[in-house]
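Exercise (ungraded).
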Amino acid sequence: MISAQAWPYVALLLVGFLPNEVWRYLALIMAHSLDEDSELVVLARTIATALITGVVAKLVVFSGGELAGFPFALRLGAAAGGFIAFAVFRRSVFAGVAAGEAMLIVGGLFFRS
Amino acid sequence: MTLREFPSQPRALIAGILSAWGSVFFIVLAGTYIGLGALAHNFGFSPWWFALSTVIIWAAPAQVVLVSTLNAAGASLLEAAIAVTLSAVRLFPMVVALLPLLRKRARSVRDLLLPTHFTSISMWVESLRLLPGIDHKFRIAFCNGLSVGYMSTAVGFGFVGFFLAARLPPLLAGALLFLTPMSFLTSTARNCRQFIDVLAFIFGIVLGPLLAWYQVELDLMWSGVIGGLAAYAINRVREAVV
């Protein structure tokens, strides 16, 4: 049996490392070039995009830890505000993150439970 | 155009490291991994576990997925593995695009094993930008240097985020946990160049929380697969109509 201490590391290898790494080495093995605009690559990209924004939205909607102490409306508002700042400031990730964080912290000063 | 050369392989490696630390991705990675370190703390992982995950996974999206699905709350391992692998398919075309820049002077496939593992968005963007101007002899060393520079940045700031999350007052610790969703939201939006990507982006945001709310099994996998396929189908129809 796997001890309790070793378990997170075994899980890291099996569930984190392997399913991620397989794509890198598959590409190395299938050495022939693959067109970046091929339909399969486009589909893989859209699935990955929807998956990532799904995870991220879950982190905002069902927050854990200290973030859960901020009201839902505030978390949503700060994310939306940050996104607007991102769009306004020529798609600057830095501007988006800074604005979202500022709104969350200022709002948190008043409305945090 | 003359290609840049170096006095030795180690010097090429060091030049790669310094180039990484001086690039804009240094700041991006620092912010991303402070957030991820805090997230790992929040979900009860050890800082060493998280550092190891950075070294062997070396893909921030896969790490967000893993950290947020592998927690105690009974999420199945299969679900986490499927979600991780779906987030990682994008690595395939990236490696395919990178290899031709490195292959000419590679003595064997062995020389390519490390750059293949190191392939991630930061290293990839910088490699595609810088390698064409570097002599073929030094490209692999320079490319590995870039990656060592980025990876050390990520590991270092992962620890910073982890320990800040443990010590900051609740207001700021909460703000730290907000870094990951905010930075991924904007950086993913930045990569949306076409209509189909924007659709996938929106579908994911709606489906992720919705499926989790209804406690659908494998909710992350489905938000990716349904959202991605729907975006693809709508785009196909749109192209056919227009």
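Further reading is listed at the end of the chapter. For now, observe: The radius of gyration of chain B is 20 Å. Chain B has two domains: 9-174, 192-242.
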